[in-house]
Amino acid sequence: FPLYWFSMPAIMKGWMDRVLVQGFAHEFPNCYDSGLLQNKLALLSFTTGGCKERYEKGSLSGDIRYLLWPMQHGIMHFCGVKVLAPHICFAPEYVPEEKRKEMLRAWAQRLKTLWQEEPIDCSAEWYFK
Q1: Which of 12, 22, 39, 119 could bridge across to 82 with cysteines, CB 3.0–4.6 Å?
Q2: End-to-end alpha-carbon separation of the chain, Å?
Q3: Cα–Cα distance for residue pair 2/29, rounded to 1 Å
Q4: Which phi and psi (to 5°) does residue 38 adopt?
Q5: Where is each Flavodoxin-like fold domain found (predicted)?
Q6: Has residue 1 been placed in a domain?
Q7: Torsions phi, psi of 91, nearest 5?
Q8: Omega of the bond leading into 119 within 30 degrees of 0 (cis)
Q9: Residue whose C-alpha is closest to residue 32's, from 59, 61, 72, 3
Q10: Are 46 and 86 in contact (CB under 8 A)?
Q11: In total, how many domains does the chain have?
């Protein structure tokens, strides 16, 4: 998805609101590591409008991990999902065609080994270190 106003597009958030409902995805106190979607994997793959430097710690937009906290931790991990490191394509609109092709090759390569990846820690330390 395209990063939109520092989050996911509204249509995607609406889908999550309708699908990840109480009783299916979570049921208090069964959340986070004991959420109802345990043993499921999630991977956010998205594009940004700005270059990578725009989303580094200390930058104008702040560390990209800060933006991931509500989506990966607050939604996916809350439901018990194991979260893989995100796949981010920074500013594809503003890079040469060869760089966009390289982004696609990297995504295709990652998909080949996805099932061997270890989930991220999904703790505050991972996001705010």
Answers
A1: 119
A2: 25
A3: 33
A4: -55, 150
A5: 1-111
A6: no
A7: 50, 50
A8: no
A9: 72
A10: yes
A11: 1
- In the DSSP assignment, the letter for residue 20 is S
Among 7, 94, 6, 78, which Cα is nearest to 42's? 78
> Is the residue at 119 inside a domain?
yes
Domain span including residue 38: 20-98+105-128
pLDDT tens digits, 34-45 = 999 998 999 999
* CATH number reported for the structural domain that contains residue 29 in this entry: 3.40.50.360
Provide the sign of the torsion angle of the four alpha carbons 116, 8, 54, 129, taken in this order. Answer: negative
How many Å apart are CA 31 and CA 50, to the nearest integer?
A: 34
pLDDT of 32: 94
33 found inside a domain = yes
The per-residue DSSP string of 84-106 comes to: PPPEEE--GGGS-HHHHHHHHHH
The pair of structure tokens assigned to 113 is 């080994």
What's the length of the chain? Answer: 129
Cα–Cα distance for residue pair 37/80, rounded to 1 Å: 5
pTM: 0.91
14 in any annotated domain: no
The answer to whether residues 126 and 85 touch, using CB atoms and an 8 Å cutoff, is no
